[in-house]
Design goal:
Order of helices and strands: HHEHEHEEHEHHEHHEH
Shape: globular
Radius of gyration: 21 Å
CATH class: Alpha Beta
Helix content: 40-55%
Largest sheet: 7 strands, mixed
Number of domains: 1
CATH architecture: 3-Layer(aba) Sandwich
CATH topology: Rossmann fold
Number of helices: 10
Distance between the termini: 90 Å
Structural class: alpha/beta
Number of strands: 7
């Protein structure tokens, strides 16, 4: 029985590798993350993951020592197929690590699933060393777009899958980082044409596997391997078109990644006028000339 289970686990890992090799968006995501991390030799790193085991295992190739934390049991089960190590489960936005334990902290698509993201960023600040960096990859929220429309009618918005929010605008990420981190370096990528085609493909993939195609369930049987084969056939057929679309970076992007250096935690208070409005609100809502007494 154990030999059969070991063979099944091996098959699952093999098919996950094949699926990753045919995923334009996941490989592009990993490339951007790796570029911002650089070499991790002699560094202590923490990854906070949404459950993509292939991303988690690939980050280990950068060197250094790594730990992975997740916010859901489903994510822990999925990653356990790729990593032979203990996966930490985040409880109530708290990271169960000592202060100043890590040089790098990488959050991969997991922030939108955290209940109190501001409190969680404060925890990230706590466990990072004084000269540490945080790297966050997230969906860029573009509410008025064809991609958002498709995801809504297909039931593919992040909140439909259990997330607390559908992503972030760049300004929203800055807002929760600004008290303890420098102004982040921000990269926006994955254009609307690629995301449109990928969304349609993701809808078809969901019909095949009934879940996010990169997630591996707690209990796997031969029927799951059959689904992986079907997914791989579909991904192979659509790969050339998605690859071509991915090169059209002149179109606005729907994914973003930020890198920000830790600094002393100091709340940045927004200046306000006597009536309680911010300067930005006053500038937007006041018509030219209304302040003049004549």
């Amino acid at each position: 029985m154990k030999e059969m289970d070991d063979n099944l686990d091996h098959e699952v890992r093999l098919w996950q590798e094949k699926l990753f090799a045919r995923s334009v968006r996941r490989k592009c995501k990993l490339r951007h993350i790796n570029d911002l991390i650089g070499t991790a030799s002699n560094l202590s790193c923490l990854e906070v993951s949404a459950g993509d085991g292939m991303i988690s295992s690939s980050l280990r190739s950068l060197g250094g020592s790594w730990k992975t934390a997740v916010s859901t049991k489903a994510a822990a089960d999925s990653i356990s197929y790729s990593l032979n190590e203990t996966i930490t489960l985040i409880d109530n936005c708290k990271l169960p690590f000592e202060d100043h334990a890590f040089d790098r902290l990488v959050v991969v698509d997991a922030l939108k699933g955290i209940g109190d993201d501001s409190e969680f960023i404060h925890e990230c600040h706590r466990v990072l060393k004084n000269d540490g960096w945080v790297i966050i990859h997230e969906t860029r929220r573009v509410p008025v777009s064809f991609v958002a429309f498709l995801r809504r009618i297909f039931g593919l918005l992040p909140v439909a899958g259990g997330a607390r929010r559908n992503g972030y605008k760049t300004s929203e990420l800055f807002s929760i980082l600004k008290d303890g981190f420098d102004v982040p370096e921000t990269i926006v990528y994955s254009n609307g044409l690629l995301e449109t085609a990928a969304t349609i493909g993701e809808f078809i993939q969901k019909k095949i596997t009934h879940d996010r195609y990169w997630m591996v369930g707690e209990k796997i049987g031969q029927h799951e391997l059959y689904r992986f084969r079907k997914l791989h056939q579909f991904a192979t057929a659509t790969y050339p078109l998605l690859w071509i679309f991915s090169k059209m970076e002149f179109i606005p992007g729907h994914q973003m990644i930020v890198k920000s250096r830790r600094r002393h935690w100091r709340p940045r208070l927004q200046p306000k006028l006597i009536d309680g409005r911010s300067i930005a609100e006053a500038a937007i809502n006041t018509k030219i000339g209304t302040a003049a007494p004549f």
